[in-house]
Design goal:
Elements lengths: L4 H27 L12 H7 L2 H34 E2 L3 H7 L8 H12 L4 H6 L11 H25 L3 H9 L4 H30 L2 H5 L6 H7 L9 H23 L18 E2 L2 H29 L18 H8 L1 H35 L4 H13 L2 H12 L25 H27 L2 H8 L4 H12 L1 H16 L3 H6 L8 H9 L5 H27 L3 H4 L3
Parallel strand pairs: 1-2
Length: 569
Amino acid sequence: MPAPIRTRAPLAVVVAALGLGLLYPLALSLGGAFVDPSGGVTLAHLRAVLADPSTLRGLGNSTLIAALTTALAAAIAMPLAAIGARCSFTGKGALSALVLVPLVLPPFVGAIGLRHVLGRMGALNALLGIDVDWLGDGGIGAIVVLQALSLYPVMYLNLSAAFANLDPSLEDAARCGGAGAWRRFRRVTLPMVRPGAFAGATIVFIWAFTELGTPLMLDFHETTAVQVFNGIREVEASRRPYALVAVMLACSVGFYALGKWALGRVPPAATAKASVTRAERRLTGWRALGAGALFAAVGGLACLPALGVVLASVTVPGQWYGTVLPAAFTGDHYVNALSHPLAAGSIRTSLGLSLAATALAVAVGYVAARILVRHRPRAAWALDALVMLPLAVPGIVLAFGYVAMSVRWPFWGEGAPLAAFASVLGADPSPFPFLVVAYAVRRLPYVARSVAAGLEQAGEDLEDAARVAGASAWRVQRRVVVPLVGAHLAAGALLAFSFSMLEVSDGLVLAQREAQFPVTKAIYSLYERLGDGPGIASAMGVWAMALLATALLGAGALLGRRMGAVFRG
């Protein structure tokens, strides 16, 4: 059936919002790669980019980083998920929370701590009494380790769900058939959890392939994302940045399709519900000790970058060099993080941007979730895909799309009506409207998923009763629906706000002037300065970790077991 009349206006609003905030910037990014100076269609820009040795090195490095990061994250997450979903042991609750700690530390911030720990004059070499360049000449190894330690929780959440939903009767049948433990895992368990592995691996791979902040913080510039970032200033005069973006997006889609073909096919048995509920196996003795040790070891390693950031935030400038721990401590960096003009200004900027973006994401996400759950229009699958699309679009690609939008009418050119309202480049840029929309679009899926979960749980009976009693549509929403899904709405808003505060790609690309820097770009700028700059940047990183941890704990308390679905692919 066509969507009811009462649904068409909200549906049009959602589609228009995502069309202008998501599809249009993407179309500009891609279209610019195929337009010649006369306005015709050409492949010359793509050929020129693909013939450039530096571009090919960037693509090769990005692909290698993404592949190694995904493999390492999977190697870390697979045993944790298999044990966590099937077994119980003493301390499992606390240790399971420990392995999720990296969710509160973006790789961008963790790079600060990693340099202090693994640098040539870092804590590890001082502890071991050796002189090893752990970061390597190019930094690829450090980037892979840091990103894997930050992103393996995404794999862990997806694999845990897959293992928990696995029908134990299939493994029992294989056991009765004489299959050993390894053969059962390889021939039965692994194919059944393959869709979950694909979901997590897709997010990790694309994230690592398009990551901008971590390579920048580790001074590694030969990746495609960094090359796009360095080409922003050329966007008016050159089509090279457009071609780079098109190549990056094409590679992301190609890798996704390859992964879908290799891992994403669902075995027929996986579509059926489990006939038997799995009971957790209680581990005791050395087995419990080994499981606990595995969780503790992974959690401890994952916390090393965070520990490095914390120590750097309390170190007197120049007093953590060639020693295991800082030689002198201070709390001044935390004070300066709230009073330094750049740091304090960036916090105010990010607060304003994030609040505005959260309000926009909540409004659009609530309407979208309600249409999908309550009204279910004919093209519900298309609307759902559109709402979730920001999770799959690389942040650097979308950010570049806003730059491309800013140099076109009505934002650019003589007599452009919105030139004073929003701009990225030029003599007097005003990037805030673009940043608000970018933040809102990137975090919209979190709000929509959270609200949809609440609506599915609430049911429609109370809404129907209110309508029968004569309540208007607005009154039903205000007095019935919103209170019912209030916890889920608050959780989605909390996640949208906290992740907007720590958004990397949009802030680095769209904010060109120091007075307009959000928190993440201020951290990057301060870390590059001498004196107390790195200390202030570290203190800001600790504030950021505290904010994100608080947000995740709050959202977890509100959503309960549904919390993991927000981060699953």
